[in-house]
UniProtKB/TrEMBL annotation:
Residue ranges of domain Cytochrome c-type biogenesis protein CcmF C-terminal in the record: 330-642
Membrane-spanning segments: 20-41, 53-74, 108-125, 132-153, 187-207, 219-242, 262-278, 290-310, 322-343, 363-387, 407-425, 437-455, 461-481, 502-520, 623-643
NCBIfam families: nrfE, PRK10369.1
Organism, scientific name: Shewanella loihica (strain ATCC BAA-1088 / PV-4)
Function summary: Required for the biogenesis of c-type cytochromes. Possible subunit of a heme lyase.
UniProtKB keywords: Cell inner membrane, Cell membrane, Cytochrome c-type biogenesis, Membrane, Transmembrane, Transmembrane helix
Cell compartments where the protein resides: Cell inner membrane
Protein biosynthesis is among the record's keywords: no
Domain of life assignment: Bacteria
Domain Cytochrome c assembly protein: 101-308
UniProt similarity note: Belongs to the CcmF/CycK/Ccl1/NrfE/CcsA family.
Lineage: Bacteria, Pseudomonadati, Pseudomonadota, Gammaproteobacteria, Alteromonadales
Name of the protein this chain belongs to: Cytochrome c assembly protein
Primary localization class, coarse: membrane
UniProt GO MF annotations: heme binding; heme transmembrane transporter activity
């Protein structure tokens, strides 16, 4: 008979309280999920009136559990396995907080807590007692129950290391000790929660026949916009993090785990446009429901890829086949239930559409189709090696050439539609605008070919597509804003038009940055030591000294490299490092970067080659920062749509005195 191990002296039961709160949360989620189902099953117990109470108590329990885990990190409680595996006493407090979601168990708890908070906010809506919201909360409760059960059974973040409690933790992965960990995962998880809410709303809309679908989809629109904005920021910060931290200067590698968060973003983009289209035309609601179900299903599929160990990546959270199998089961349940219900309601969702092929709604639908094709293409490229290995027992890799050959032409087509659609009329074509767009396309093509001829030694199809897409979006956006401002009378709310224009501008800037950095970057791999120099892209780099740097969690060899501009004037000192972490002796390269609006100077420090010389990589990356500037513009353009409508200023309304005089 096994005996209970007593807690060590001075040790509290904080972790057990966190675990108890998760169990309470699971119970409340099940009650929330069953509340609209029990009357239909003939059970007399009425839980429906208490559903808002269950939701708020559940949110409180989940947030308290998350705060308890954060406290365990800050207090260095290494009796908890998750804390011992992802922290130590030398880790900075900010990274201890970020470590809460830096591993598998904590990131799942953060996801659950964010979903609980969002559910609580929805329960405070004035119409939260409607039948639609009861179904929505029931579905969200079922999803949370599944995730919490997954956490409790195989991924308990509060599991103890008893009786052998380590004196020191293993430390957080050095690659994760970056501001990117503070920004990138939370934004992605909030985006995933937004897609979960859209999924729940889609299921609720299919179950609730008391109100028209247009009203349900209109309620879904702000949630889809917020999910899209968070996923935009999450992917942008993830790319920026890889560029800064991994030391090789790349910003996107088509890694399967990168793709796992990019694919839902593509579907969320299509969902957002479909909801906007449905609100305006009262059509295409079935498409919106399909995209909502697909978007969250792909989030779960991506979670399976990240946590199952079927793909190897520096981004992966875990490598446990049992956990992966549980997540794959949850993905299958969500997908099968959602799409089965959609198929049952499909005949009633169909409404004939009478519109010209070159009308605005037709182009928007074409854009959504292209986004969906892009998402499926990336998904197939990410999963094909896994399927091939299962079928044949042999390994195969699908790299950047495959993804670039498909995604770049698809992006060009999407940009073509994206620029033209806002300028077209609803239902009918616009011959006059078609002539203007044809002329604009000819100008963009001519400029693109001219730039290709002048700047590159040979014809580059991808450069031409990128430059054309950027010029086309800038031209179409400028033309659209000109027409809107010319027709503006001072009445109405134009935020949606301006937000759309700035989002499209952000896409153009990101494409410009990606195209220029890909085709015009210059790079040298050198053997350098003190006193040695090299000219790259007109800049002179002089290795001045090798310094030793000590930090709380690591020690480093640091190169002091002076940069001089094209006029031989001092520009900056860059300090690339070769860091060795105290806890595990792991070595990583920390780049030295000089940032400017038009180019980055990027230096990474490799292995020691002799007593004084190191392997140094110097890169000149023109306009690379515009990739993330464009991403931030897109993110904030989406968030601007969620701000409350402006109250018309009193100065615009006639005063009572003027009204009397006018009478």
């Amino acid at each position: 008979m096994s005996s209970l191990v007593p807690l060590a002296e001075g040790e509290t039961m904080t972790a057990e309280i966190g675990l108890l709160l998760l169990i309470i949360s699971l119970t409340l989620c099940l009650l929330t999920a069953m509340s609209p189902v029990m009357p239909a099953c003939g059970v007399k117990l009425r839980l429906k009136p208490y559903q808002p109470l269950f939701i708020r108590l559940n949110s409180l329990a989940q947030v308290a559990s998350l705060f308890i885990l954060a406290y365990l990190f800050l207090s260095n409680d290494f009796s908890v396995a998750y804390v011992a595996n992802n922290s130590n006493t030398q880790l900075a407090s900010l990274y201890k907080l970020a470590a809460v979601w830096g591993g598998h168990e904590g990131s799942m708890l953060f996801w659950i807590g964010a979903m609980g908070i969002w559910s609580c906010v929805l329960s405070l809506q004035p119409n939260h007692k409607d039948r639609f919201f009861h179904y929505l909360h029931a579905v969200l409760g079922a999803i949370q129950a599944g995730l919490i059960a997954f956490l409790l059974i195989g991924s308990n973040p509060f599991a103890r290391l008893l009786p052998g409690i380590p004196v020191e933790g293993r430390d957080l992965n050095p690659i994760l000790q970056d501001i990117g960990l503070i920004l990138h995962p939370p934004l992605l998880f909030i985006g995933y929660v937004g897609l979960a809410v859209c999924f729940a709303a889609a299921i609720a809309a299919l179950l609730d026949n008391s109100q028209p679908l247009k009203q349900h989809c209109r309620l879904m629109r702000p949630w889809a916009i917020l999910a899209w904005a968070m996923l935009t920021g999450g992917n942008a910060f993830g790319s920026w993090w890889a560029y800064n931290e991994l030391g090789w200067g790349g910003w996107w590698f088509w890694d399967p785990v990168e793709n796992a968060s990019f694919i839902p973003w593509l579907v969320a983009t299509a969902l957002m446009h479909s909801l906007i289209l449905g609100e305006r035309r009262d059509r295409f609601h079935g498409t919106s429901l399909f995209l909502a179900i697909l978007g969250f299903s792909l989030c779960l599929l991506g979670t399976f890829l990240v946590r199952s160990g079927v793909v190897q990546s520096v981004h992966a959270f875990a490598a446990d086949p049992l956990r992966g199998g549980a997540m794959l089961t949850l993905f299958a349940l969500v997908s099968i239930c959602g799409f089965t219900l959609l198929l049952q309601r499909l005949p009633s969702l169909y409404r004939p559409v009478n519109s010209n092929m070159l009308s605005r709604e037709s182009l928007m639908q074409l854009g959504n189709l292209l986004l969906l094709v892009a998402a499926i293409s990336i998904l197939l490229g990410s999963c094909y090696p896994l399927l091939y290995e299962v079928a044949s027992g042999q390994s195969i890799s699908v790299g950047a050439p495959y993804f670039n050959s498909l995604f770049i032409p698809l992006t060009w087509l999407i940009c073509l539609v994206m620029g033209a659609a806002p300028l077209m009329r609803w239902q009918v074509s616009n011959p006059g605008m078609l002539r203007q767009l044809t002329a604009l396309a000819a100008i963009c093509l001519f400029i693109g070919l001219t730039l290709n001829t002048l700047l590159l030694k040979e014809f580059a199809a991808h450069f031409l597509l990128g430059s054309f897409a950027c010029l086309w979006l800038l031209g179409c956006t400028g033309l659209y804003l000109h027409k809107r401002l010319a027709a503006y009378t001072g009445a109405g709310d134009n935020r949606r038009c301006y937000a759309m224009s700035f989002a499209h501008l952000g896409v153009a800037l990101s494409i410009l940055g990606a195209t220029c950095s890909s085709y015009f970057q210059q790079e040298e791999l050198l053997r350098m030591g003190p006193g040695q120099g090299k000219e790259v892209a007109g800049y002179t780099f002089i290795y001045r000294a090798t310094e030793t740097v000590s930090h709380t969690s690591y020690s480093a060899l640091q190169a002091k490299i002076e940069v001089r501009d094209r006029r031989e004037q001092h520009l900056a000192y860059l300090y690339p490092q070769r860091q060795t972490f105290n806890s595990n002796a792991m070595q990583i390269s920390a780049a030295g970067i000089h940032r400017s609006l038009f180019a980055d100077l990027y230096i990474s420090m490799g292995n020691r080659l002799s007593e004084e010389e190191f392997l140094i990589r110097i890169s000149y990356k023109p306009l690379i920062g515009w990739i993330w500037i464009g991403g931030l513009i897109m993110m904030f353009a989406g968030l601007s749509l969620l701000l409350p409508r402006k109250v018309r200023r009193l100065s615009r309304a006639p005063s009572p005195q003027l009204a009397v005089k006018g009478a």
